[in-house]
Amino acid sequence: MFWEARLESWAEGIRSQAIVPLRLELWNGQRLDFGAPTPQVTIKVPHVSALSYLLKPSLFNLGKAYVEGKIEVDGRANEIISVANSLARHTLRPEGKFARIVRSFHHTKKRDEEAIRYHYDVSNDFYRAWLDDNMVYSCAYFETGTEDLATAQLKKIDHILTKIRVHPGDTLLDIGCGWGALVKRAAEKFGARCVGITLSQNQFDLAKERIAQAGLSDQVEIRLQDYRDVTGSFDRITSVGMFEHVGARHLVEYFTKLRQLLADGGLAMNHGITTTDPQDGETAYGGGEFIEQYVFPHGELQHIGTVLKAMQEAGLEAYDVENLRKHYAKTCGIWADNFENEAERLKTMVDDRRFRIWRVYLAGCAYAFANNWVSLHQVTCAKTGDNGSALPWSRRYMYAQ
């Protein structure tokens, strides 16, 4: 048959380039191995029609086939992602259709709210199952690399609040406050008066509940609000894991809004995922396409050079830039392991399609950060012309105990 010859030719092409710990099990009982004595991953192909996903194994095609139930895959998630990348790398050219293309979306308040709710309003219990107890859904900070996740997440929050020198009585705005961990810590440990905003109803409800339980309701306000609608002046501003949703067209507008909200002499911190492609391209081999369709609708990543340029154009001066790519690889790896360990419980919380999306997404993110496809930068900034008046001469203060 035609498909048999094509499949064998495809498999032989991969075997000639690499040993891949993969076994294919076809609907007719045939098995194909790819050189490894003990396959770590088994892909089960229940029908000949599913072969089209394999013969052009972009990360989008493979991810779609798995998510939509066109194929079944056995193996740990991190091993599945490693095998998928091997198939893509040894089969496809990184240029052309599978290149790191640049996307640009028009972001509106309604569209951004829908995208945020799609991603975050799964259920609080779903996130609680694989995050730390404080439910911090952003890159942790491993001072030594030996910390557990909860400790590293608290160190991340303290690292941010120390960098921007939060003092008792300071007003702090947290844009994209998640489940409230940062504003809660800023109030409890640093004595700040905080406003946290989110577009997720689930996050809003639980954050308010947690703030009330901590007895901080007169010190911390949680709002269901778009950052474009915030008014007032704040001594300190944090934005953690949010600006990925802003979009390239709106980056200067976003930083301009931060500048308008920042008090004279104030400090702001932008903590977010960046692409490592200087041309602002997304993850290669169709990885970005998968994330756009299934995980983060309308999300866009910019190179750190683009981010700094947009800040400057908006009237903000960067005083400190820290790359935490290695930290996010470790964070996502822990999340992916937690997800695998809680798989049976998680399957009772969401449908099979959603479970599969998150399973490959978390493991895929760990792989992408570990292999320098994407990065994470913290940028500390102030209004241009403030001359860094709120900052000491040395960076030593960031690490004072």
Describe this structure in words.
GO terms for molecular function: methyltransferase activity. The chain is α/β, with parallel strands linked by helices and 401 residues long. It folds into two domains: 2-92, Nonspecific Lipid-transfer Protein, Chain A (2-Layer Sandwich), CATH 3.30.1050; 109-399, Rossmann fold, CATH 3.40.50.150. Helix content is 42%, strand content 18%. It contains 15 helices and eleven strands. It has helices at 2-15, 51-55, 59-67, 77-91, 109-120, 124-128, 149-163, 181-188, 201-213, 251-261, 287-295, 304-313, 325-341, 343-347, 352-370, and strands spanning 22-26, 31-33, 41-45, 72-74, 171-175, 193-198, 220-224, 234-240, 262-275, 316-323, 374-383. α10 (251-261) links the parallel β8 (234-240) and β9 (262-275). The protein is elongated and about 70 Å long.
Strand order of the largest sheet: 7-6-5-8-9-11-10
Percent of residues in beta strands: 15-25%
Tell me the CATH architecture of the largest domain.
3-Layer(aba) Sandwich
Helix content: 40-55%
Q: What is the gyration radius calculated from CA atoms?
A: 23 Å
Number of domains: 2
Major sheet: size, sense and barrel closure?
7 strands, mixed
State the CATH class of the largest domain.
Answer: Alpha Beta
Q: Characteristics of this structure?
A:
2 domains; 15 helices; 401 residues; CFA/CMAS; Nonspecific Lipid-transfer Protein, Chain A; lipid metabolism; Rossmann fold; methyltransferase; 42% helix; 11 strands; alpha/beta; 7-stranded mixed β-sheet
Short description:
It comes from Noviherbaspirillum saxi. With 401 residues, this protein is an alpha/beta fold. The chain has 15 helices and 11 strands.
